[in-house]
Structures are given as structure tokens and as C-alpha cells.
Design brief:
90 residues; alpha+beta; four-stranded antiparallel beta sheet; Immunity protein 35 domain-containing protein; Imm35
């Protein structure tokens, strides 16, 4: 079983690798990282939004990064998995 710190490092690297040139700078929303059903749920958003939490700066459709704590697989969440992060309390 992978430790949360190690899983979070994988998510940070995955986000950096996935970042496109036409996107605003992105960062992990560390305050909202949670574990659910064997996954580390790692939300992210624009650096600008995370600095202010101003909803006008928030990016839409930021599916969180999921890290499988058993296998270490890292990927973006899917619509079918939305229940993993939408029902978590903030």
C-alpha cells in the first residue's frame, strides 16, 4: 500500500506532465486532497484560483487526478467515478 505523501508526489508529477502550453498554470489543491475507496483523490485548478479562491477564477471541468494507492497507477478521474469525489465533505 502506497503512502499518501508518495501518491501526492506522483499526482504532482502527473499534472506537470499533463499540462498543455495553452492552459493557465495549474497546481494541486492540497486543501482538498482526500482518500476514497483506495484512491487518493487529488483536485487541481489554476494557480490564480487557488491563490484567491475567487469562483470567477475557477476552471470548469477539472476532473481530479486519481492515484490508486494499491498499484500506484495515476490518471484523471472519469465521469463514471464522479461519486468518489463529489460526495466528500470539504
Amino acid at each position: 500500500m502506497m503512502e499518501q505523501d508518495e501518491a501526492l508526489q506522483l499526482a504532482v508529477a502527473f499534472l506537470a506532465q499533463s499540462q498543455r502550453d495553452d492552459e493557465p498554470p495549474l497546481a494541486i489543491d492540497a486543501e482538498r486532497v482526500r482518500e476514497s475507496n483506495g484512491f487518493l483523490i487529488v483536485p487541481y485548478n489554476s494557480v490564480q484560483y487557488l491563490a484567491s479562491r475567487d469562483v470567477r477564477q475557477q476552471l470548469l471541468d477539472c476532473w481530479p487526478i486519481l492515484v490508486d494507492l494499491e498499484r500506484g497507477d495515476v490518471r484523471f478521474g472519469t465521469l463514471d467515478e464522479r461519486h468518489l469525489w463529489k460526495n466528500l465533505s470539504s
